[in-house]
Design goal:
With 415 residues, the protein is α/β, with parallel strands linked by helices. Helices cover 44% and strands 24% of the residues.
């Protein structure tokens, strides 16, 4: 165990130091308060034995400054003094001292007091050992939002070391605008006791040292101490599970091969449009590729998959940003074009898509071409429900196929 021994009198200090070293302690000796604070900051000891009355910075001020430095470990400070006035004892304890020893020092009492402090420190070290080996980040802040403790999992999650965080405002771990708003929220909670996170828990965003933000689950508990409060934060990094959830949601609504929306998303989009079509006219295009089967049969499924990906890219590229295109399955695609000016405008869109699909492509090193047949139905002219509109567009597509393929046809049916 390392002891920082502080006493301006070498004659008083040397016998005590000799006793401590006989007991197996390693002792660093300084002779004034300023040197004690510097030694404490450079290499925190396990315990501090500090004289109270010293020239320059006395032991009480040195204790106050040591305790203000914080740190993950509790380092007990035992003040040594011949002063007996109660106000001197109170001043020392208020500065953060943990115990008192009266001078002249009785070695048996000194050893007993140090063992007592060591037992308390061991209990705290065991607690921090548990906290450092849990999966969740655990940190505590005081009523001003200043971080008091910060476990190993927090270091892993946020990327900051404990020394970089303890003693600083917890808002350094938050992105904007939460960082700027945190102190006001904390003050408002302490004034009004209306919780938004405290005692409730919620999903929020954190900020790593490198500036990245990430989703996390935060639970905060208030710990009341006399007239003030401390707050314990329990944090889980949920980046992986959020990514998995987003992936599942994407797969539920998208075609895995082309990454376009799938049939389920198209149906939902078309039903929403039929329910609220607005005052404009909308075109639903049903597209079936021509020449896809020969590619699949002669070049193989890998080439066929690439052909579908190229077709999907060309459709998305040639449609307006607010238009919607999906893959129904196989070599069938559908598109919704919003607020088209006329039937001729819808046909012009269809012909533009035909030209895009017909452009040459290279599949597995082999020059290839595909075409398409497109049927168009207009909302609300050719139907008012999703089933009516899609059926009308499907029939028009098959009419285009029967007419020689590579064509765009507008349905002639009416609801």
């Amino acid at each position: 165990m390392r002891i920082l021994f502080v006493d301006d009198s070498r004659a008083t200090a040397l016998p005590v130091i000799a006793f401590l070293e006989q007991q197996g302690y390693r002792v660093t000796y300084v002779q004034d308060g300023a040197a004690a604070v510097a030694a404490f900051q450079a290499d925190p000891p396990d315990q501090v034995l500090m004289d109270v009355v010293m020239p320059g910075m006395d032991g009480i001020e040195a204790t106050r400054q040591m305790k203000a430095l914080g740190g993950r470990r509790w380092v007990p400070v035992i003040l040594m003094t011949s002063l007996t006035a109660s106000e001197d004892v109170v001043a020392g304890l208020n500065a953060g001292a943990d115990d008192y020893l009266s001078k002249p020092i009785v070695f048996a009492v000194l050893e007993a007091r140090m063992r007592s402090m060591h037992r308390i420190a061991s209990i705290q070290d065991s607690l921090f050992g548990v906290l450092d080996n849990v999966y969740e980040a655990i940190l505590t802040i005081n009523a001003q939002g200043i971080v008091q403790s910060y476990n190993r999992a927090a270091q892993t999650i946020f990327g900051y070391s404990a020394d970089e965080v303890i003693g600083h405002n917890v808002n350094m771990l938050m992105p904007e605008p939460y960082a700027a708003e945190h102190d006001g929220y904390l003050a408002r909670y302490q004034r009004e006791k209306t919780p938004h996170v405290i005692g409730i828990g919620r999903k929020v965003r954190g900020r790593r040292k490198n500036g990245d933000t990430f989703p996390m689950r935060l639970s905060v508990t208030e710990l009341k101490r006399n007239s003030s409060s401390e707050f314990i934060g329990l944090i889980s990094d949920i980046s992986a599970e959020e990514a998995a959830r987003e992936r599942i949601e994407f797969l539920a609504l998208h075609d895995t091969l082309t990454k376009l929306p799938n049939r389920a998303q198209f149906n939902a989009r078309l039903e929403d449009l039929c329910a609220q079509p607005g005052t404009g006219m909308h075109a639903v295009l049903f597209l079936d590729l021509d020449g896809f089967k020969p590619i699949n049969d002669t070049l193989g499924h890998e080439a066929g998959d690439e052909a579908l990906r190229i077709a999907a890219h060309r459709l998305r590229h040639d449609l307006a940003a607010n238009d919607f295109v999906a893959r129904l399955g196989g070599d069938e695609f559908v598109a919704i074009c919003h607020d088209v000016a006329s039937a001729d405008a819808a046909l012009a869109i269809g012909n533009r898509l035909l030209a895009a699909i017909a452009q040459p492509m290279t599949l597995l090193g082999t020059p290839s071409r595909m075409g398409a047949s497109i049927g168009i139905a207009l909302l609300p002219q050719h139907g008012r429900t999703a089933t009516e509109i899609l059926t009308a567009a499907d029939h028009a597509m098959y009419a285009a196929k029967r007419s020689g393929k590579g064509q765009v046809m507008l349905t002639e049916s009416t609801p």
